[in-house]
Amino acid sequence: MNHLSKPLIETPRLILREFTVDDAYDIYELNADPEVIRYTGDPPFETVENARDFLNNYKDYKNNGFGRWAVIKKDSSTFLGWCGLKSNEQNLIDLGFRFFRREWNKGYATEAAKACLEYGFMELNINEIIGRVAMKNTGSIKVLEKLAMEYWKNDSCKGIENSLYYKISKEQYLKNKKTSF
What does pTM read for this prediction? Predict the structure, then answer.
């Protein structure tokens, strides 16, 4: 598998690139961990073939010019998970991420998500990006807060009641970037 095809965003440790059908096994394995998908509202893929079908039919890049991107560790070409932007059901731009449990607490989610905010605001000229998280998902809440995203409201998200919504504007991002990033 060529995990380094189509690099889109680079950080000191990571490459973010569009998914390919070659990512099917990794995506299947990622979603097979009940802890990884615990707060997502997503079921696991039943088979690797189902994951391949999902990737074959993933239209966000074509429809929106962006989407969720594979996150690859530069020094080993290892697939770590995914991170990226998505236009959600309310036409808001949503930042999301999902990583293998063995990669948690290494700063990858924050590093990748920060790069996605930069790309969204500076390359795609998006004016506001939101993050949605289950109230019990403290790890993801910490990532959103490290990105200086501010609590916005409580609402349901993909069948998960009482989810927390965070947001950050391009203006606030640029202001924070000057002072703290």
Answer: 0.92
